[in-house]
Amino acid sequence: MRRFRVVLLISVLTLMTAFGPPLLSLYLARQQGLTAEQERVRGYADVVAQRSDRAVSQMQEAIDTLIAVNADDVCSDAMILRMRQLSLRGEFLKAVGASSDNRLLCSSLGLHQPPIDLGDPAEITVQGTALRYTAPLLEAEGVPYISIARNGFIAMAHRNQAVDMALGIDGAILATFNPLNGELRTASGDVPASWIDRIEGRRSTEFVDNGYVVAALLSDQVTLTGAIAAVPLRYLDERVRQINWRLLPFSLLAALILTLGLLYLARQQVSMASQIRQGLRRNEFYLEYQPVIELATGRWTGAEALLRWRRRNGEVIYPDVFIPVAENSGLISRLSEQVIAIIEKDMAQFLGDHPLMMIAMNFSASDIQVDTTARRLFDMIERNKLGSGQLMVELTERMLVDPDKARQLMGQLNDHNIPVAVDDFGTGYSSLSYLESMPFDCLKIDRLFVEAIDRQAATSRVVLHIIEMAAALGLNVVAEGVETEGQAQFLREHGVRYAQGWLYSKSLRAEDFIAGYSQQLNYHQLKQ
Known about the structure:
- This protein is 46% helix and 22% strand.
- The protein is built from 16 helices and 20 strands.
- By secondary structure, the protein is of the alpha/beta class.
């Protein structure tokens, strides 16, 4: 009997030794993968909430601005001009106007005769703000718009803008909702009501349900606004499998080392910020170059350097996801420095051989606050003896909230013969006076306005105003996102010199860009 017990104990210990480490590794892989996936989904929900908050904030600010004018005639020419200026300032704002008795009297698109019937509002808040989830004004564009009306004025924004993001994840769901009554406002897929119920009494929650890893949270800035993001479980399963296959090959003799290694890995918080740091160490970031062409001739005159990230496991993380995290975690300047280093490696020789070519890179708000990035750029230019204007810096309107810092940086760039472009014009927050007072060399029209040209949408008129404004300020104009010959012809006819977009070329790796440039150069030489 005693011998039997000893054999039984040894057998149990042997089985534990044989199967314990693989089972432990599977458990730890599951927990680590779930933590990482929940954090990723929470990050997506944060982005949705922030985009929704910005849309609401821009609409409220536009209405406040119009109320403050205190005009006797809310549809005067001066007021309509003011509405038009406001509609250009917000990245989500589409139109602003004046309303009365559920009718739109006039807007940034002009005087409406007869007034447009808005219909009854879907909700009226305790502050008296009327919400509508479908705005009849812009139905011709084929997309729904949401509106806010208060004190005789109304502002409209793209209803799906908050959830309209390319995550590169098949089956992902993004949504916004009203936490007071659980009503969905916008969604990119089917959202069970139970997901919204799970957040009751909390600011945020993450869970697994109905085949998805889900995160739900309430906005920190706008009341009665919540956001949801969900990713199919197959992505979690794939992440767990990848982790587990890295652990299983270890033999039972290395069980202790394996266990310690797993505990170490489990303690590592694979947050997006730590993934960015890891990606920088592993050189996972690279650049693609979007050719900039001269509309009149089709010649390539330069390129915009676009930062890309592909992890070792093949997962592509898009800039819309990692750039905001890098900005909030203080890593954006390291990414900017990485961009400069990659441009030097990819393009220094090419630029030296082609002194008329130009490469543009984006600066962040952090790069404006401190001059480390600018100094690295200056050193790189001097080290490679690049010519005047061969590197251009692009700043977005949203970076102009600190005009003194921005003006100081732009002065340094101009001193080093580096032109400066204002990027995505018409989608930011700056006033037009900033453009007049700052030494910009170039203005880039956002693709949203270029896309409207083919549809003959009301927003296509904005392109003409931007072109006229740039001409008055003496700025070169580059149109982004040109995809059809109709758009190109429209831009040529109205004096736009440069463009970039898929009509001419997608973004290319350095070697492909250089080869493409040589090919089109030979083509133009043969034509001559």
